[in-house]
Amino acid sequence: MAKELDPTKRAAEDLTEAVEETLTGSEDIAIIDPKLKEKSAEREAVREASKPKEEKVRAADMERTASPIVKRTSSRNDARLLIITRDTGVFTENSQSIIHIAQYAQMFAEVHVIVLTTRKEDAVYQTTRVGDDIYLYPTNSRWWWKTIGDAKKVAKKQLVFGESFRPDLIIAEDPFESGMAGKAIARAYNRPLEVRVTENFLDNGFVDLAPHNRWRRFMAHIVLPKAVCVRTGSEYLKDLITAEFKAVKDRIEVLPIFYDIESWKTAPQTINLKEKFPQFKLILLHVSAMNERSHTESVIDGLYYILRQYKSLGLVIIGEGPKRAAIEERVAEYGLSTQVVFASKSVDVLSSMHSSDMLIHASSDPINDEVVLKGATVGIPMICGNVGIAAEVFKNEESVLLCPLDSPPCFGEKVNRLLNNNALRETLEMNARTVVAENIVQDYTQYLRVYRQSIERCLV
Question: Right CATH number for 265-439 from 3.40.50.300, 1.10.3720.10, 3.40.1410.10, 3.40.50.2000?
């Protein structure tokens, strides 16, 4: 049967085929299309008929120093990882993405990374070796929906030697395309699959956040029940996933977090908000994921009167999220569009803090606790909701000013108070730095040990 020529129909056909492949052998998953299994069987028959009698031996595209293939009974120290990610930042030298991947190389023998990339005129990624033990393999797919199947092809070409599949564990950095590819590869080579969840795909606004998110939510419902291990970025996400997917209750954990305070202290400043927004004499900074737990609307409600009173006072909001449109609409309704500006989440938060006068933080999601710690490290006066690390580690009126999340006017009152009290601002800055120094453990070796143990539990 010829491929559909219409691009939209072809996309749906290819993506459906990728989904079918991951569903093969999964009798407990409800099939939406009653003809899906029939179509899958038909395609499988075509594949079998087209296979050569003798499969060619495939060589890796890049040079590698050969070493014995790790057996399934190998020691944990010698285990090899396959990580599947959509983050193309791993190809950028010294980026946070490749630094994150490099952590794995400190814990395991080899780290292979399949990066789900699409071909672009200005970016065709190359298979790359980083250091001695990190290998990056782009899929360079023609379309995004092809990345799942292409990842499986890359795995077979690059990581199968004779009858052996090199990695011992597969880690998918999201439950979407990465998860689907990881599930297919794990099943093909009988390897355990760990799936990471770092964003709330169950949020009502998730589908509208990106063009393909309706498909991604569907993928997550296929992938997560079949993962050997699930790891989340916060207790909040863990609770959400456990409530939605009862089957993962005994195999889900929160990943340990390392706050790299020392690197924050020496990080180069890449942006100056005072120069970027010279119309503001004083800048209030608010970092937001723009979801239900960000409480950005409460911040704007609370700052309404103080912003109307001081026209040279500006609020800079860094972030993206499902509620951005609603937040922008509220700002417009208040007539504050000239005083409230929005910046992409790619803007350097640390540099922005250095060039701001106050930090307003209202998130009730523990995954955003890092924002508070960065503010304390930089030394910016902080007004925070009385939740999370701000309330648990810092002390109201000494190292932070706290506001109940159900009392928006409190944020405006605290800002007004700091505007007229330089001594209080200096006291908050100094004490916040002391709190971080005394309470945030900087034992990187211990962090790596705990992180590695979390991964190792998936190998059992």
Answer: 3.40.50.2000
Q: What is the pTM of this model?
A: 0.70
Rounded to the nearest 5 percent, the helix, strand and coil shares of the chain are 45, 15, 40
Angular region, 101: left φ>0, alpha ψ -120 to 50, beta rest? alpha
With the C-alpha atoms ordered 400, 405, 407, 408, is the resulting torsion angle positive or negative? Answer: positive
Q: Distance between CA 160 and CA 229 in Å, rounded?
A: 24
Q: How far apart are CA 157 and CA 257, in angstroms?
A: 34
The SS3 assignment for 169 reads strand
Q: Is the dihedral of CA 198, 147, 208, 122 positive or negative?
A: positive
| 265-439 has the same fold as 75-259+442-460 | yes
- Please state, in angstroms and rounded to a whole number, the distance separating the CA atoms of residues 8 and 84: 26
Residues 148, 158: Cα–Cα separation, whole Å: 16
pLDDT band at 346 (very low <50, low <70, confident <90, very high): confident
For 172-231, write each residue's pLDDT tens digit: 999 999 999 999 999 999 999 999 998 889 987 788 778 899 999 999 999 999 999 999
22-43: average pLDDT: 46
Cβ(107)–Cβ(452) below 8 Å:
yes
Q: Where are the domains of the chain?
A: 75-259+442-460, 265-439
Superfamily of domain 75-259+442-460: Glycogen Phosphorylase B; (3.40.50.2000)
CA distance linking residue 44 with residue 38, whole number of Å:
10
